[in-house]
Amino acid sequence: MPSFEVRLPTVVRQHAGNAVTVTGDGDTVGEVFADLVRQYPGLRNYLISDDGTLHRFVNVYVNDEDIRYLGQLDTAVVAGDDVSILPAVAGG
Amino acid sequence: MSRYESVLDLIGNTPLVGIHALSPNPAVRIYAKLEGQNPGGSVKDRIALRMIVQAERDGLLSPGATILEPSSGNTGIGLAMVCRVKGYDLKIVMPENVSIERRQLLEIFGAEVILSPGEEGSNGGIRMAQAIAAEHPEYVFLYQYANAANPQAHYEGTGPEIWRDCPEVDVFVSGLGTTGTLMGVGRYLKERKPGVQIVAVEPPSGEIVQGLRSLDDGYVPPVFDPAVLDGKRIVRLGESIEFTRALVNTCGIFGGISSGAAVAGAVKVARTMESGTIVVLLADGGWKYLSTGAWTDPIDEVVARSSTTIFF
User: N or C: which end of chain B has fewer CB within 10 A?
Assistant: First the structure.
């Protein structure tokens, strides 16, 4: 299973032992997140909603594309893909 | 005929200009819609006028009224211009760390600027404006993030203009912001041409500027309907500045930094297409960003500065 280094937004690092980047394995974004939550249980509430979908105020990008418009948490990832987590913010 | 009785009549009907030289694929043509041609200098003139006209129709605005709005710049400037013509007072809540030109323009147009803490970013400005609005029910709070007249301005103006000038459009690309542009243009174009793709570009600001104390401080504008979008791409600040420079160097178009981000997004989309036509919206010109050094300083220095200055 490929392994991904994921950079955490500043506001969620405290829930992962203040790690700036964390590493998770998986063939989909959901599997990578499950592996991250296994290592850092405190991350769960910041990545996943109660209904099992992506947290509303989190945007996750695979190679610069928002996974909400790919396959949500089922979006496939292969070795070398870039996985980024960004908080939702407003412009205007 | 180019003769008008009011500056407000100049809002909209912006030109499309080919920037095909920036397309990575000669079979993909890219047209830029130059919203910097609006009289207040940005796409936000459209929603400023439309929100005020709607409030007048709804009986919320009477002579001498005071309007309150959170804005990182362009919406405030558009509102200030319309308020001068129509005789309303305007208070704009703006993060203290936006580029100096925006504050100067607001003051020139007669708005009162209320500064919100820079470390709380644009979300902090929104929170402060909401608190002031709650304390002062006499202020008219247009609130672009939840005001249906915002996407409506684009459904009635920007969308039909693109359809009139470029019916061959396959993909529309624009920055995210309040999402009003994408919602209004997206709905209009999809009614006319169901296969058209609507792609959002998200230019992430520096994390300090976002000012989030927790993810729950995050913000999704109420006018946003995710179903209108077909894709969303992130464009980093470095890429945004590269394309802001490429726009002026290759096409002679002096756009703002978010225009560079939108073009960078359009180029990413073009790489995935065999052929077709992209329309990309350039929200404003570069004038308000000269002090950021975006055209003059090394790109990595400008990017480093983005951790303390709001560029969008």
Answer: N
Contact list in A for residue B44 (CB cut-off 8 A) is 92
pLDDT at B133: 96
- Contact, B149 vs B44, CB < 8 A? no
- The model scores a pTM over 0.95: no
Q: Within 10 A of A37 (CB to CB), how many other CB atoms are there?
A: 18
B130 touches B22 (CB < 8 A) = no
pLDDT tens per residue across span B276-304 = 999 999 999 999 999 888 999 998 888 88
Question: Is B44 annotated as catalytic?
Answer: yes
Contact B212 A10 (CB under 8 A): yes
| Cβ neighbours of B198 (radius 10 Å) | 20
Single out the catalytic residue among B71, B258, B259, B306. B258
Phi first, then psi: give them for residue B210, nearest 5 degrees: -65, -30
| Biggest alpha carbon–alpha carbon distance for chain A | 41
| Among B219, B228, B143, B144, CA closest to B184 | B228
Give B-chain residues touching A10 at CB under 8 angstroms. 207, 212
Residue with tokens 């700036």: A20
Does the annotation count B291 as an active-site position? Answer: no
> What distance in Å separates the CA atoms of residue B84 and residue B62, rounded to the nearest whole number?
14
Residue B195 CB-half CA count within 13 A: 6
B145 and chain A: CB distance < 8 Å anywhere?
yes
Please state the ipTM of this predicted complex.
0.78
